[in-house]
Amino acid sequence: MSGSIPFYQKHHRHYDRGYRSKDMESTMSQYQASSRYTAGSSGYAAGSSSGISRSRGLKVCSHAGLDAHSLSPVPKRTKPTYLAVDKEHQIIGYVVPIFRGSQEFTTGYRNMQTSASMDHRDHFTSGLEMERSEQTRKETMRESADRIAQNKRIHDHEEHYKRMNEDSLMHPPEFVIKPRSHTVWEKQCVRLHCTVTGWPDPRVVWYKNNVAIDPLAHPGKYKLESRYSVHSLEINRCDFDDTAQYRVSAMNAKGEQSAFSSIVVKRFKGEYDGSLPAPRHGPVSEYGITFQTHIVDQFGVSFGREGETMSLGCTVIIYPALHNYQPEVQWYRDDVLLAPSKWNHMHWSGDRATLTFTHLNKEDEGLYTLRVTTKSGYETYSAYVFVRDADAELEGAPAAPLDVRCLDANKDYIIVTWKQPAVDGGSSILGYFVDRCEVGTTHWIQCNDTPVKFARFPVTGLVEGRSYTFRVRAVNKSGMGRPSRVSDPVAAMDPADRARMRGTSAPWTGQIIVTEEEPAEGVVPGRPLELLVTEATKNYVVLSWKPPGEKGLEGVMYYVEKCVSGTDSWQRVNTEIPVKSPRFALFDLAEGKSYSFRVRCCNSAGVGEPSNPTEATTVGDKLDIPSAPGRVVPTRNTDTSVVVSWEASRDAKELVGYYIEGTIVGSNVWEPCNNKPVNATRFICHGLVTGEKYVFRVRAVNAAGISQFSQESEAVEVKAAIASPAPPYGITVLECVRDSMVLGWKQPSFIGGADITGYFVDYREIIDGVPEKWHEANIRAISERAYRVCDLKENRKYQFQVRAANMAGVGIPSLPSEVFLCEEWTIAVPGPPYDLQVREVRSDSLTLLWKPPVYQGRDPVNGFYIDIKEAGAEEEAWRGINTKATEGTHIKIKNLKEGEAYVFRVRAQNKAGVGNGSDITEPVLAVTKPGTTEIVVDVDDEGVISLNFEAANLTADSKFVWSKNYEDSTDLSRVTVETKGNKSKVIFNSPSEEDIGIYSCLVTHTDGASSSYDLTEEELKKLLVISHDHKFPIIPLKSELAVELLEKGKVRFWLQADKISANAKIDYVFNDNLVSQGEKYKMNFDKNTGVIEMIMDCLTPADEGTFTFQMQDGKATNQSSLVLIGNVFKDLQKESEFQSKEWVRKQGPHFVEYLGYEVTPECCVILKCKVGNIKKETTALWYKDGREVKANESLGFTEGVLKLEIAQISKKDAGVYEVILKDDRGKDTSTLNLTDQGFKDLMNEVFSYIANSSTPLKITSTDQGIRLYTFVSFYNDLLQVTWHYKDSAIAFSDRIKSGVVGEQLWLQISEPTEKDMGKYAIEFHDGKGGLRRTVELAGQAFDDAFAEFQRLKAAAIAERSRARVAGGLPDVVTIQEGKALNLTCNISGDPMPEVTWLKNDKEITSDDHCILKFASGKFASFTIVAVNTSDTGKYSILVKNKYGTESGDFTVSVFIPEEAGSKKK
């Protein structure tokens, strides 16, 4: 409305009635009453009214110069539009508006005075009936200038007022420029922008399909910018998923506004994805087309868990298929239309509708319906989705609450409601905690310090103008459960402001409708009306009332007061800030106390009188927990579901719904059937175990809590409910004669959960296309799916219908058949076969059965042909399976493609030819279903042959139907059928060739469980052999009769039977004579292990012969023999005698292990033996070469082991070692020969350890040449090594030598040359293969070693030839003054060194006082003829040549005898 007033009035608060002069008021009243009231003036009046509504709080006196002459009506400016339309007013695009600066705006306004506005001014002036003189052009310009000056004064005053009163600046967000929609190509970038005004500066949030856009979650995808009130969203490289509705929301303390735009992303034709709907190229002509919609490939009852993802999808077939036709696809949950959100995504691919849950929540549980609408109607499909609770983070903690909502949102509080969870974790829920989070942040704040039991809580402490989300957590004695799904965002603001913010301006109608009086300034408001306590709990009380009845009051707000019942002391609750909305929540009330409440109105004129107080209200929960539901009745539904109904809770208030639980009888484990309360008193519980018995119970829920459980229902078995069968279909004529017709039909797709007991056929005559009444063709039910209808009239037309019947009753009739003419068939070929059945479906094969045609033709039927084609293929795709006609009425079809659907038909032939094909079968998918088993042949212990079949997923009504060659067997004399549980078998009474054939088994009331077994002649012969073995069994043996020796030389004969009972009889035979238990023979039979044995103390020559064990166990027998004669017997007898002697030896101290040796890694030799049966008195003596070895540290005796350690073995340690054990029970001796070969073997083992301890051969250099070396851990003088050069033993000389230094073995090559390059090796000899270490002295290795040798050699020469002071000089010389000093030292060096003498580090030369000589290049002398005190000092001799320098120092001290004497005194 504000767009209709001039710009100088548009933003001024003081443009109201008080601003006008009295003359102006009179003028305006006359103007409004004028009959020439035009649309332009209407816009002005509306603008004035708008201006008046903003004039509260300020009164300004009239300004000079502003009178009736300065006002003129201005035509109403319509709301600008940015949509481009064509002549038919169809939207064809979007126009970007051009924005002008302030100067352009002022200029534009000056040019607004068009001729039309001048005409309005003339009418306005004449309507006032004022006398005015004709003005000149100069006067008109003067008035215009005055008017502009007045406008400037008004504008300046307004700006001054704004600076003085900042509250007037606050206004809700407003979109100056809204984002526009775009259609872009894929991989292009798109930018949405808008301009928003408002103060305080609004906060802007962008949404995609109502989900906030987070640039950090999609790096590089989205870019958000905000500059100077211009906000933009840039989407980089758009793809098909970016096609969506985008919303920009601006919010500040005064309110919230939103603007919408859409983005459509298109693909180039060459990049079209076949999985997506084809773009519509041009219009689609739908006129005159009737669409048929079918929903196939449907989703079933689905089960998910919180936090998981789930997709529901259906394939939609629309006929006829128009390439560009787009149906309306909608999804509903519990009959509520779903919209895309961050929780669910919807997709339509052109033939499949998909609903995807990105993060399942319990709120997603419910009945989902897909609705596909075309212009010809709609089709729907529904199925239930169950959402189970996620695993508890803390064991025993309750599940998450659900359905968190925000009610009664105000500027400082919001009432949060939720629904209690069905699972409490095993202990009752103590209460709930409510958390809040400000939109745009991730920080959650707990709102209540103590848990609240009421499922409704008012949250306070909110910041006005900000939006929040909420979540709820349940707690019990085990701890805190998972949080609920967050609520939708809600802004904390006054409901009145919210209503004004959401309101939209009405379209212009050309009339002014006054809806409210002008605010009455200076009037104190009256009493509020109808004050009520709308909600009272022990935590809070909510009041609501109606504003006072007076109209036009200025800015009414409210104060709330409370009073404890029985007193007159009223206390104001909101002392600081009055509330604007007529509702308020009070907290911190004492539970159990009674209060009264009243409300006062206030405005700038003052505070009004209080309302009538409420009745006394006691603080406490007024809403009671509902009573337990009544009788619970479960009813059978399907194989996995039960219908549960119950009586509603009585007198339940604010009922939320019911929770149902079920348990298997006897388990006592209750599981929730729903996780979201249901409002009805009937619910289908899915996901139950077929065949189990269940008991159910129900609880009611409201905000106060969850009721007690209802009484448990009666047990109900989970199985499909019995219903009447569906109608048969596929009615065909199998034969026709003059007065009768034979009909055939197909079995109903649903038989109602019980066997079909028969069929009823009806017929009616068709006369001139008009059907007559139906007549019954049979009174009694027929079991076959073929029937001859008699008493028909020749050459008349008839229709037929068939009904199926079971124990539940007769089903509805089938659709009427085609119209058949009753005339006799005279064709020569046979009629069509009928009753085609498919069994034993596997991934690569199946079996097809049929019945021969009723009409044989001119000659009898002599064979059949079977045709096959892929389902959905063209008619030309039919192909034959058999090239030669088959005589039987069944065939096994092989070589099918797994996963392919096929259809079949059969044709009969006689001598005249091949007749018409039968009706085709339903499509059959070549796949092996889970749980499929085959018939297994078995022969039991009695030799009985049987065929066994085990089926899964049986129902209570399932039966095993056996047949031979696919014919119902009536002769039961040859076989016996036994069925127990899910297993059935056919037992052959007397197997013979008469039993050869194909045996099949079909299980009724299943998904086609069937199998067959081809019992051929060859197979029967094999089974008869096995049967004979079972009838006349042999005791199986794990081992035949064997012999072994025991201690004391005893002989044990034994065998082990694989399977033998405790009642078996054993006979022991020697040379055909039975032997029995006695002193010589000891027999034993272990019935647990099947071991049979006979033990003899010793063998004598009389025991040579054959031993036999004969066994009999029931009718099973066996025997095993062992022949002991000749050398075999003699060897066994000798070994027995030896073992006897050994046993005698071991009665005293003896050697368990005889004396031997062991070489340690340290190359120590340890002689040791192991002894047994010793005691304290037992002695052990060591001998070497007959001499006793004295006890020392080398002997040891621990844990029955005697040891003698030889640390560094050498030749002197060779000899014969002996150990003797003895005590009063006897003695034993052990000898070890370590001489000759024995010692050599020992040393070879030592050498092997030494060789293995050697390090890799390395290269080093000396001043004499190159040295190769290796280290060993221990060196023995007897160790033999050989050095090799190029695989040949080295002949040592003065230049090439080898040696040993400690544990180092080396090879020295003096003065090496290039001829010495090559492969070197050292070989250690250990009497076996030996060990060789090699190194390659060549290339860089040789160069480095040779260079190092040259360097060391030069260093050695330099060291030998450098100048040296050999000796002869003392450190200190003390001499008496006047004496002669003569010192001489030896000098060496080549070349001869230069000699220099120094005194106190200064060079001195030879003179008469100090004579310096260097004779023969070897001797240097220092002579002072007569020393004096000046000769005292430090002297040095310095010798030097080209190899080095060396010095010798000495000190000369001269004393005077007199001084020395005085010092002594």
Give descriptors for this structure.
six-stranded antiparallel sheet, single chain, 12 helices, 102 strands, 12% helix, 1465 residues, mainly beta
- Compute the CA-based radius of gyration: 59 Å
Outline type: extended
* Number of β-strand runs: 102
Query: What is the structural class?
Result: mainly beta
- The amount of helix comes to 10-25%
Distance between the termini: 137 Å
* Poorly predicted ranges: 1-133, 269-285, 503-517
Structure description:
With 1465 residues, the chain is mostly beta strands. 12% of the residues lie in helices and 41% in strands. The chain has 12 helices and 102 strands. The longest helix has 28 residues, at 137-164.
Summarize the structure.
The chain contains twelve helices and 102 strands. It is mostly beta strands and 1465 residues long.
Tell me the layout of helices and strands.
Blueprint: H1 7-10, H2 22-33, H3 39-53, E1 83-85, E2 91-94, H4 102-110, H5 115-127, H6 137-164, E3 171-177, E4 182-185, E5 190-199, E6 203-208, E7 211-212, E8 222-227, E9 230-235, E10 244-252, E11 255-266, E12 292-296, E13 302-305, E14 310-319, E15 328-333, E16 336-337, E17 344-348, E18 352-357, E19 366-374, E20 377-388, E21 402-407, E22 413-419, E23 431-438, E24 445-446, E25 456-460, E26 467-476, E27 479-480, E28 490-491, H7 495-502, E29 529-536, E30 540-546, E31 557-564, E32 571-572, E33 583-587, E34 594-603, E35 606-610, E36 617-618, E37 632-638, E38 641-646, E39 655-664, E40 671-672, E41 682-685, E42 693-702, E43 705-706, E44 716-717, E45 729-736, E46 741-746, E47 758-767, E48 770-771, E49 775-776, E50 786-789, E51 797-806, E52 809-810, E53 820-821, E54 834-839, E55 846-851, E56 863-870, E57 879-880, E58 890-893, E59 901-910, E60 913-917, E61 924-925, E62 936-939, E63 945-950, E64 960-964, E65 967-968, E66 975-980, E67 983-988, E68 997-1003, E69 1010-1015, H8 1017-1031, E70 1037-1045, E71 1051-1057, E72 1065-1070, ...
Parallel strand pairs: 4-11, 13-20, 95-102
Antiparallel strand pairs: 1-2, 3-5, 5-9, 6-7, 6-10, 8-9, 10-11, 12-14, 14-18, 15-16, 15-19, 17-18, 19-20, 21-22, 22-25, 23-24, 23-26, 26-27, 26-28, 29-30, 30-33, 31-32, 31-34, 34-35, 34-36, 37-38, 38-41, 39-40, 39-42, 42-43, 42-44, 45-46, 46-50, 47-48, 47-49, 47-51, 51-52, 51-53, 54-55, 55-58, ...
